[in-house]
């Protein structure tokens, strides 16, 4: 089942080698618990272009990125692994439809996904902060 329906070019999803390995393992381990999201994450990893973490452009969402979004109030969210997620702190798990749709997104991109209830949602990535590369703004 397809959740992330972002406007990404179909062949252009950039993911670091470290994120790719860990996310692929996470998705495989989660197939029984959250099959739709795990399958979507595996699909995204299958089509990803993998690069060394040190070579990742600053304008690409990766694990640990804090993303300023335009949508529901222009809030800032951080993309994390499931064990680090805390909705009260705006820490969104990559193993949610929104989190899966965000991985590899770039500044200015509109990201779309379906909620687990089937509602179509979207946001626009306005800025990305990464611990390794500093702040990027559009």
What does the model show?
By secondary structure, this protein is of the alpha/beta class. 23% of the residues lie in helices and 28% in strands. It contains three helices and eight strands, in the order E-H-H-E-E-E-E-H-E-E-E. The chain has helices at residues 17-29, 35-47, 97-102; strands at 14-16, 49-51, 66-70, 76-80, 91-93, 110-114, 120-130, 134-137. Strands 3, 4, 5, 6, 7 and 8 form a six-stranded mixed beta sheet that branches. A hairpin with a 5-residue loop joins strand 6 and strand 7 (120-130). Helix 1 (17-29) packs antiparallel against helix 2 (35-47). The radius of gyration is 14 Å and the shape is globular. The termini are far apart.
């Amino acid at each position: 089942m397809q959740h992330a329906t972002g406007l990404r070019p179909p062949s252009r999803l950039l993911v670091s080698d470290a994120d790719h390995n860990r996310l692929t393992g996470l998705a495989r381990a989660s197939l029984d618990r959250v099959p739709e999201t795990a399958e979507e994450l595996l699909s995204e990893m299958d089509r990803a272009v993998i690069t060394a973490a040190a070579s990742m452009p600053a304008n690409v969402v990766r694990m640990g990125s804090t993303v300023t979004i335009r949508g529901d109030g222009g809030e800032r969210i951080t993309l994390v692994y499931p064990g680090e997620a805390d909705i009260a702190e705006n820490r969104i798990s990559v193993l949610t439809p929104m989190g899966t749709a965000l991985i590899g997104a770039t500044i200015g991109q509109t990201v779309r996904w379906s909620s687990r209830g089937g509602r179509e949602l979207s946001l626009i990535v306005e800025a990305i902060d990464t611990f390794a590369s500093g702040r990027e703004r559009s």
